[in-house]
Amino acid sequence: MLPASLRHAGWTRATFYTLLGIAFSYALSLGARAGFDYDPLLDGESVLQIALIAAPLFFLVGIGCFDYWFYWASGRPARPEDHSGHGAKSWKSYFYVNTDHKVIGIQYTVLSFFFLLVGGLMAMLMRAELAQPGRQFVDAGTFNGLFSVHASILIFLFIIPVFAGLANYVLPLMIGAPDMAFPRLNALSFWMLPVAGVLMMASFFAPGGSFASGWTAYAPLSNTAPIGQVFFTIGVQFAGAASIATALNFLVTIITMRAPGMSFFRMPLLVWANFSTSLLVVIATPFIAASQFFVLLDRGLGFNFFNSAQGGDVLMYQHVFWFYSHPAVYIMMLPGFGIISEILAVKSRKPIFGYRMMAFSLLAIVVLGFTVWAHHMFVSGMQEWIRVPMMITTAIIAVPTGIKIFSWLATMWRGVLKLDTPMLFALGFLTMFTLGGISGVMLAMIPLTIHVSDTYFIVAHIHYVLFGGSLFTIYAGVYYWFPKMTGRMYDERLGKIHFWMTFVFFNATFAPMHLIGVQGMPRRVADYADQFAGWNLAISLASFALGISTLIFVYNMVVSWRGGPRAVSNPWRALTLEWQVTSPPPVFNFDRIPTVVGGPYEYGIPGAVHGILHDGAEVTPTPAGTAAQPSKE
Amino acid sequence: MGGETRKPRREAMLLTAAIGLVLSAIGIVIGLWIDWFPIQGSTQAEDIDTLWDVLVICSVPVFVGVTAVVLFSAREFRQKPGEEHLDGPPIHGNTKLEIVWTAIPAVMLIALCGYAAVVLSNIEEAPASGQEDRVAVTGEQFTWTFEYTAPDGKKFSTNQLYVEQGKSVKFDVRSKDVIHDFWVPQWRLKIDAVPGVTTGYRVTPTRTGVYPVVCAELCGLGHAFMRQSAHVLTPARFDKWMTDMAAKKAAGAAPAAGGTAAAGGETAAVDGKALFTDGNGDATACGACHTLADAGTEAATGPNLDEVLAGQDAAAIKTSIIDPNAEISEGFGEGIMPPNYGETLTPAEIDALVKYIADATKK
Questions:
Q1: What's the angle, vertex CA B38, arms to CA B36 and CA B44, rounded to 5?
Q2: At what angle do helices A183-202 and A140-152 cross, to 10 degrees?
Q3: Contact call for B70 and A355, based on CB within 8 A
Q4: Of A354, A447, A629, which has the smallest distance from its Cβ to B5's Cβ?
Q5: Interatomic CA distance for residues A395 and A444, integer angstroms
Q6: Nearest Cβ partner of B195 from A314, A356, A402?
Q7: What is the ipTM of this complex?
Q8: End-to-end CA distance of chain A
Q9: pTM
Q10: What average pLDDT score do residues A327-351 get?
Q11: CB-based contact A43:A31 (threshold 8 Å)
């Protein structure tokens, strides 16, 4: 009989199972090599490739993600559903498998921010190296590894999951549901993330160094790279599987678990945004999984997908990769659109201008997002005729995006604007994302892209979209829901300092990159021509200040969470349902499912409420305030 | 705050609009004034730079407009003391306005696409005269090789690119290993070199001079150092270069191309040290990547030759030059040193170089 610690889910069993997984990898490798009469019998890389897949799976079993399903499948009595796994009893609960969407939301968000700091630190190292031409701190291989892991971590382990984390927390509350549709699947999705993160970070210790072929991992460079590449290939599979499972969960939750009265057109736009994002994820993510499986098969089992000498097709990798990775840009943007819609309506005290167009423009982006991928390949040598059609669709996708920008501006118009930290980040997002969108339209123009592709102009564009766009919305969302998630208020003064430092040094860091890119500085190089030295030094100095501004945020979050003033249920006087319950909400969100009786943003209509709670007299939904007098138009 | 309708003050709106117009104008002037691009070195660059100017003119007002509305709202509609429980008017939308801000950007964007498509077709158009040079460009980790066909039909390769001013040249771009990208910033043109596929572009250089050939697609450890030069020569000088090269390559045919042609009495004419520090105008200088005390070079891309070659005989040194991956010094990666010196140096040059390095490392 095994000791209790090895029978029950937890870290001891997870460690034990991980070791079992490694032993299994040795056995499988030795067995297969013996069967084929290979010499030497023991091959480290062969074992490592198997272990990279097997050890994480064994870990997930050990930590307890599959316990219920295994009990059920084997016909043993499944544990009675007393929801004993629900809710966090202390901070330690966050380190174990938990099925409460609020616990998972916080696990997701905090872990993602940890990866933001890791990825940001790598950016600091790169900027230190780039402060002067020539070689300062790291060699070419390490530098290639730094930017590859920086991008991979921040895309796959920060932006995508942090949005899933925030939505995990607030989305069920917003639609009046007690939890997500599949709580156990939700827990499994979360636990695949630390696996992916550990794989990507551990790649630096692999023989031959970390993966260094960029986050795009173009074949055949990734086919021939040292074993560190496989850490990316397999890490992406785990992050992708987590992403797909969460998206399915969101779709089913949104479709089947809305409170009575919440029609699709009474859903808050954050819900619409995550509905759209989840459609993108479910359709697109299998493609990046495929692209990485091709590489894995080429490397591990001698397939020739990308070996042109054996009839392989190198350009196929890029088509399959970008068929996911372009929609991925919207996967990293649409949830942010949702956050901004929530904040602008509440902080402007006005209904969203053109609500239906806002929802339809999200769906338009989903559809158009699948028709533009080859604009990443204008200089790839693909068939030439496809370029102009892809240029047109790429330009046209700016139309629904423009609708959103103009509608947000109109939402603020004549409102009562509360310029606190979430709102400042929302306004910062509006201006910075517009710049990123403008450089995006420029990049749609093929003749210009022929010159600026693979230069710092691209680096500038993507950071205006993902930092000035996505990260600003993430900051806005974290400040906005911080009182709900922690039950504490953050420090407003520090929040504003954080915003202004981030805003100023973000621009000081990334704006000059447009210029040096057009002037001809290629991206992904550790060394550059002397003519770019002045700008690069300025950029590096600004980036260090940008890094410091992040520490202000971390300090504010940690200190406020531990000892900030208690938050009331609804500090922002918002109408949406998550603000009608206590901060933080009760374990099962609502004692009884609320009834939705109106739109989510009926500000200015005296006494209007979005939903009615049935929890007793002490909790009544906050009604909208008094409108300014209607004008005599 | 009785009587507050939250209608923006008309004069404030007019003022903001006026400031916005002025700032747009200033922004456009600055955008056109900034020296964005490297030197304009081809007819294609002229078209692309004009497209950029048009894009700047269209973009600045969009950004200024959005920012102006944000700043105006933040100032004019800000929550004032006493308004903590005030809401804005419940305006849910305006169909006319929404149609306008859907239609106008759509028309503008389609128009820009039309213009860009015209530019694209112009820069890719074959010359009307039909007169065009052809150069085969091959990328490999981490160097470019350029192959020409001399007027007598013989082929020869160089490690530097030479083209003729004012005449269209078509490049056929290939790769031996991974994806590279053949870019000359002064021409504004680039294309990936893809294994298994022949890609390419055509350019009509307009300015003589020496410009960098840059690999723009991440291709491995030596990516940042995959740089060569494009020499744009006047037609007369280009013809002379072509004749000279054809003659030189015929005389001292590289082993790969023409067997074991003896070097003749040329060895004495080649200065090994100069070759080491300056290259031959065709092959990259050794000293660009290697430290060698005797030559006074200091570089750390490749191993320090004073250390790794000390005590090596001439044969080993020759192998290291012609087949650099045969033996790799500790701490350095395989495939960083171009493997094509056997083609881009003549046998006489290789012998002179081996002799010089052997002498220099014996000291």
A1: 100
A2: 170
A3: no
A4: A629
A5: 6
A6: A314
A7: 0.91
A8: 81
A9: 0.90
A10: 96
A11: no
